[in-house]
Amino acid sequence: MNVYAEIITIGDEILYGQITDTNSQWIGQELGKIGFRIIRKTSIGDSREEILTALKEASQRADVVLTTGGLGPTKDDITKHTFAEYFNEELTFREEVFTHIEALFKVKGREITELNRQQAYVPALGEVIHNAVGTAPGMWFPQGRKVYVSMPGVPHEMKKMMSDIIIPRLQQQFHTPFIYHKMVRTVGIPESILAQQLEHWEDALPEHIKLAYLPRLGQVRLRLTATGFDLEQLKMEVEEELYKIRPLLGEKLYAEEDIDLEVLVVEKLKQKGLKLATAESCTGGLLADQITNIPGVSAVYQGGIVSYSNEVKMSQLGVKEETLRTHGAVSEETAREMAEQVRERYGADFGISTTGIAGPDGGTEEKPVGTIWIACATPKETYTQLLQLTSDRILNINATATAVLKLLWKHIDTIG
């Protein structure tokens, strides 16, 4: 039996974009681990009417309603008062909450104000949820089979409260099925084409196993979600589906876990004791940034150069003037020389390169926007690939970085 949860984040600062709502993302992930289905996430301002409406609407579709925010000591923090109104309850002074606030202020050497004392008032129906690292208590409101939970909006306070108290209590009250997720990562195939290739397989999936497409720039993540009360059985069934999908994806499949391609590339280079260097034009340093964000990458990454102009391609990389004059900067020949030269000059086993027309302008009839050449040079051979991408500059840059990493990934095993 499914148990549905709804998350409501409260605060004008969220709506104005002054802070990013990370609370609902974290709560959703944690509830998913224990078998709850998130039916909706809502962000609302510090408005009595909006809070009352959100609670009423959530009660019609969710078994558990969780809110964060609006529990501070200032006048704009109205969540507690609105909960009292919603349940037609009075606020009552809780001595245990006030004692905790006193202890926190004593440690910090601060005096308690009347506003701080007001935080010890909680709706009579509400069961206090201890806030070990803050002054605003959480509240648990039982309503028959349904539960309403109010938590502080400060992320570290909310997370500790959820982890230590709320999640164990929800698990105890609700008998939820396991929800098992398995992520598959693909690269170099658009979502629409991928969906066509997988259509018959997807249609034949068991009722309790669902497929979701999660596209990002240059990649598509596939998430298989299985629901049931026997976790080991779910894992076995998902593995059976993976066995069927592998031949359909072929080399487009690069991982059966939620891991970025650059991380896999760096780990494989480490295992084989190989070095890498990069020469970038149209990606403008994105490759180097992605690679150097990985801890421990200094063991494999020699360095790179952003050779945006032809002059730098010649002076810093050694691309021949004749190559540029005859074939142009956006050409297989130039990409090849860039990769070979950076590999040799930086003493690396692999050199990878990007050169192209990212857009939105600069294209010609022969080489329209989105025309990109990439290359991967090894001690034995140099591999090149032509990409025909879109008119969107950011998409093209990101897709190119992904494509050249995929090209490298494909050929790492050719040496070492």
From TrEMBL:
CDD domains: cinA. Residues 6-173 form the MoaB/Mog domain. Belongs to the CinA family. This is CinA-like protein. It comes from Algivirga pacifica. The lineage of its organism: Bacteria, Pseudomonadati, Bacteroidota, Cytophagia, Cytophagales.
